[in-house]
Design goal:
Layout: H1 11-14, E1 16-17, H2 23-36, H3 51-58, E2 66-78, E3 81-95, E4 102-106, E5 113-119, E6 123-129, E7 135-138, H4 148-165, H5 168-192, E8 196-202
Parallel strand pairs: 5-8
Antiparallel strand pairs: 1-2, 2-3, 3-6, 3-7, 4-5
Length: 209
């Protein structure tokens, strides 16, 4: 069995850091979306909302990017033989492919117009291990070679990915961040088109509050 040691305070979840998108970026993106859809400029008429135009605008932002700092210990083995343990510090990036965002505009009912945004599944997209953070405990001195750092980095990335991929709280927070981002980006639009309501869904029918 691989021995893993993690930092106190709940391991991966204990070091979750939510990267809130800066207010100025939200405002700029929202204003951009508003103008793209015909807002501003003193026009009295409104541009017809289309799903393709909404998708294009939403995809300009790095939606639902979420970062987690994680300290762990990975075990490197050869068969059943433990070669060494290596402690590390990593940053785990969570998000989704923005090109897979889907938007539908339903204006079939005059009193119940709706914009529905469907976000793809959130997943771990990248793991960055700090090479300078590696701390080795060798069981076999022969494993301490010039190439050990390359092997250790690979083992640490896999260890961090495995540990964080099963953390339900982490993904719940990432989904919350995604929903808040979409709401902030579409707020200027909904002010211009108050007859529309916004619904945000995830794959599998998950409903963002």
């Amino acid at each position: 069995m691989r021995e893993k040691k993690h930092q106190p305070a709940g391991g991966c979840a204990g070091r979750v850091v939510k990267f809130a998108i800066a207010v100025i970026v939200m405002i700029a993106a929202g204003v951009f979306l508003w103008r793209q859809l015909g807002g501003g400029g003193g026009k009295e008429t409104k541009t017809v909302l289309t799903s393709s135009k909404l998708e294009k605008v939403l995809q300009i932002s790095d939606l639902s990017t979420y970062k987690v700092t994680f300290n762990g210990v990975a075990a490197v083995e050869a068969g059943d033989e433990l070669l060494y343990n290596v402690a590390y510090h990593a940053t785990v990036n969570i998000g989704f492919d923005m090109k897979e965002i889907q938007v539908t505009v339903d204006d079939s009912e005059e009193e119940n117009k709706k914009i529905t945004v469907v976000l793809p599944n959130i997943e771990i997209v990248d793991v960055e291990v700090e090479p300078g953070s590696l701390d080795y405990i060798f069981e076999e001195s022969s494993a301490n070679t010039q190439d050990v750092i390359r092997e250790a980095l690979s083992a640490c990335k896999e260890d961090a990915r495995t540990e964080c991929s099963t953390n339900e709280l982490l993904f719940a927070l990432a989904r919350e961040n995604a929903g808040n981002t979409v709401k902030a980006l579409t707020a200027p639009l909904l002010e211009q088109y108050p007859e529309y309501t916004l619904e945000i869904l995830g794959e599998g029918g998950y409903r963002y509050e």
